[in-house]
Design goal:
Number of strands: 13
CATH class of the largest domain: Alpha Beta
Structural class: alpha/beta
CATH architecture of the largest domain: 3-Layer(aba) Sandwich
Shape: globular
Order of helices and strands: EHEHEHHHEEHHEHEEHEHEHEHEEHHH
Helix content: 25-40%
Strand order of the largest sheet: 3-2-1-4-5-6-7
Strand content: 15-25%
CATH topology of the largest domain: Rossmann fold
Amino acid sequence: MKVAIVHELLTRRGGAERVARIFAEMFPEAPVYTLLYNEQRLGEWFPPERVRPAKMPSAFRLLPSAYRFNHHLYLSQFPAAAEAWDFREFDLVLSSSSAFVHGIITNSAPKHLCYVHSPARYLWDATQEVLERAGKGPLGLLKQQWLERTFHTLRMWDAEVAARPDALLANSREVQRRIELYWRRESTVVYPPIEDFWLEGDVRKEKDDFYLIVSTLTPYKSIDRAIEACNRLQVPLKIAGEGPDIRRLRKLAGSTTELLGYQSNEDVRTLYKRAKAVLFPGQDDFGLVPVEAMACGAPVIAFKKGGALETVHEGETGFFFNEPTAESLEATIHQTRTMKVDPERCRSFAQQFSRKRFEEVIRREIEEVLGQGN
C-alpha cells in the first residue's frame, strides 16, 4: 500500500506536528507533503528527503527566513497550493489538518482519511478576536480590512471543500461539534496520544511551590492571563516554550515569573513532576499538555471550556476556572493552594491516551476507509 502523509505547516513543534510525526513513523516509506517547511526547526522530525513542500510564488521564497515561515503572508495562496498536489500514485492519503489540507483533491482515488485538529478557528469561531488583534498598531486598519476580505474568501472555500475527504477523524468531542456545525459532516473522535516517555519513572508525591506552563508562546494560548494572575498572587510561575509572543510576555512578567525558553523533553518531564500544578489558561481543541502533565503526576488548572473538559476531572486530576479572565484564574489558584491531588490518580487517567492505543485505532480507521465502495 502506497501512503502519502499531508500536514499543513512544518514550521514549529506543536501538538498537531506530533500527530503528523506519528503518522510518518507508522508509515516510514511515505512522503510528507506540507505547505511550508522549516528544515532548521523540523528537520529532525521530518528529514528533508521525505518532505515535499508546496510550490509558493518565487517572491515569497526570496524573503528572509524570519518572514518566509510566517504563514499569515500565504493565507490567500494556500488553497490553490493544496489543490495542486497530485496524489494519483498513492492508495491512501492520511492528512493532519488544522486549516487547509482537508481540501486536497483525491476524488476517492486514492482514499483520503483526514485527522482534523480543528476547522480553522480564525475562519469561524475566533474571527472577531483575530480581527481585533490585527486592528491594533499604525497599520492595523489596513491589516484588518485585508484579513476581513481574505477570511471571507477562505471561509467559503473551507465550507465547500469539507466534503472532499472520504472520512473525518476529530481530535476531541469539541472538534467533532465544530465539524458538524461548520461543515455539516459526521466524524469519529480519536484522541491524540502522548508518548510513552511521559509515563516513565515514578511520580513525585511532594511538589515544589511553583506553577508551570508548557506551551507555544502565541496570543491565543492566553498565557498573559496566567502571568497576570500569578503576578497578583506573587506565586512562582515557570513558562517553558518559545514562540512569536515571547517579547510581549516578557514585558508582562513580574518578579516571580520565569520564561525558560525551549526545554528538552527530559527537562519538561522533570518540571511536570516537580510542579505544584500545570496551568492551562486558554481554550484549546484538545490539548496534549494537560494529559502529559497528568502522566507525570501533576494536577492541572484549566479554563472550563474546550478540550480540557474531556481530560480534566474536577478534584481528581485538577481544577477549573470558569471565566476567561485573570481574576477567575487567580481565584481558583488561591482556593486550591492547600488542596492536594493524588499524583498516582493523575497518571492512571493519562494511561488511556497511550500511543499504542492511538495507532491501533488509526489502523482500524484506515481499514474501514479503504473498504468503502468495495
